[in-house]
Amino acid sequence: MRKLFKKISAVICAGAIACTALAFSAFAADNGRCVVYNDAISDSDRAECEKLLNEASDGKDVQLYVLFLNDKTVTDTQVKELAGTMSNRSTNSVAAVVNYGTNYAFVDAHGTVAERITSSKAQKIYDKYLSSELKDKDNVGAVKAFIKGVKRYNSFLSPIVILIGCIGFLAFFLIFYFTVRTKYKFHEKPNTNAYLEGGDLNFGVMEDIFVSEHTSRTAISSGSSGGGGSGGSHSGGGGHF
Amino acid sequence: MPVLEYKCPNCGGGLELNPVNQKMKCPFCLSEFEQAEIEKLFAEQEKNKFNTDGAEEEEKARKDAEFSGSTNLYRCQSCGAEIMADDTTAATFCLYCHNPVVLSSRCSGDMRPSRLIPFMTTKEQATSNYKAWCGKKWFVPKDFKSIETAEKISGVYIPFWLADCSVSGRVHAEGKKIRSWTSGNYRYTETRIYDVSRAADGVFRGIPADGSSKAEDGLMDALEPFDYSQLKEFSMNYLSGFLAERYDVDRKDVFPRIKSRVDENTEALIRNSMHYDSIRILDKNIVIEKTDWEYVMMPVWFMTYKYNDKDYYFAMNGETGKVTGILPLAKGKLFWVSCLIGMIGFILGIIGGGIFL
Fold first, then answer.
1. Span between the terminal Cα atoms of chain A, in Å
2. Domains in chain A: how many in total?
3. What residues in A contact B182, CB-CB < 8 Å?
C-alpha cells in the first residue's frame, strides 16, 4: 500500500514538474518583454508595460523583462528559476517575475550587468522600488519602478554615489587646506619655566583636606546585531509583498 | 652728533666684528685685530684729536648735535656722505661707502645697554639656515625662497629688557578624585572631593622682552632661549658691522608682557602640584613682589619680506642659530593642491559609495 502511495506521489510530482517545464517553455516562447500568464494583469496594462520596457531596452546594453503570474501552485523557488530563465533570454539582462498567486516577486540579473546589480542591489530594487507598487497592485507603476531601480543601480555614478564623492572631495579639501594654513601660522610660545631659579617654586603651603565622598551606580545595557548575503554570475533578490 | 667708526690701522677701511673669533676684521685688507687693541688705539686717536683742535671739534660736535637732533642726519667719517637714520637706529652702514657706522650717542647715558651677547653666527650660517628652513615649506611663494631674498638678511642688535621677578602665589581650589569599577550589571563611580590650598614663591631670572616697537613681540619671544653665560660688558666694538636699535619701548611698557608670562607659569606650576582628576580654581592671587631690570642687546639675524601688501618675517637667534618666522602662504598654490587632494577624496567616495550602496 505504501509502495503504491509512493508511486502515485511520484507520478503527481513528475506531472507537476512537467507542467511547470511546459509553462516555462511557454514563457520562453513569448517574444514580448512583458509576459503575462493566467491573465495576471489586464491587456491594457500589459500593452503599457510592454511599451515601457521596449523604450527602456531598445538599443540599450541591458535588456529588461517582466513576467506576471497568478498561480498559487508556483513556489518561490520556481519564481526564482523563472526569473533566471527570463534573464537568460539576453546576454545582458534583468528580469522581474511577479506572482500574484503567492504575492512573491523576484529580480534576477544576468551577464555583465550582474556585476553591478549584485544580489544585494537586486534585493534593493525589490525593496525600494517594486514592493510598494506591487502592494498597491499598480502593474504599470511596478514596471516603471523596476526600470527606475535598474537604471539607478546599473549606473555606477548614481546621484547618491556622486554626492558621497562630493562629500569626500569637500572633506579632503578642507582638512588639507586648513591643516596647511594652521601649520603656516605662527604659534610658538616661549618657555618661561626655563627662567625659574631652581626649576620649581618653593611651596610653603600644600594642604589637601578631604571634604566629602559620594558613589553613583548605573546599570550596564547590552545589544546585538546580524546580517549577510552572497552573489554569482546570476544575481537576484526578492520577497513577499 | 658723534659718530664712531673703527678704522683699520693698516688701510683705513671700516672694521667689522667677526662673529667666529670675536676679532675686529677689515673687509678690505683682511687684517684682524683684538678688540682691546682697537679700543686702545681708538682712545689714543680721540685723545690726540682733542689735544690738537679740541675747541674746533667741540664746536663742530655741538653744531652736528643741533643739526642731527632735528633731522637725524649724520656725517660719514670716511666719505663725508650724510647718513639718514631714524630715531632708534644705533648702528648702521653708510649707503655710499658701506662703512659700518656706530651712532654712539644712541647708546650712551640711559640708552647705554649694560651688557650684550655678541653675534656668534655668521651671515653665511644665517643664509644657509634660512634656506634649509623655508626650503621644506611647499606653500611658500617661490621668490621668498630665492637667493636675492636670502641676501637681504641683516644682523641686528635688538634691545631687550631682562626682568628678575620675585613672585608669590596662592591658589585655593576644589579637587576631585574619581574611581570607577564594575560589579555585576552595574558600573559604580566614586567621587572624592578635597579642599586644596597651595602657597608658593619663586624667583624668575632674566625673562626677556624686546624693547623695540619695530620687532614683532611673538617672533622675538620665539627666538628664546639666549645663553646668558655669553653676556659681555657692552662695548661699541660689538656693534660695528651690524645694525643696532636702541629701545623705544620702556620697561614699564613691557612689564605687562612679563607679568602675563610669570602669572601663567606660576599658576601652571601650582596646578601641576595638585594631583587630581579634575580641578576647579576657587580663588587665586599671584603677585610679583619685586622686579629688577637690565637693559641688554641681543643678536638677531633678521629679514622682512613684503607679500600681498603684508609684512612677513624671518629671524634667527644670532647666538644659538635657532630659527623662526612668520611665513607667507601662496594661497593659489595651496588651493589647487587642496583641489587635487580633494579629487582623491572624490574618487575614494565614488568607489566606496559604488561598493557599499
1. 42
2. 1
3. 220
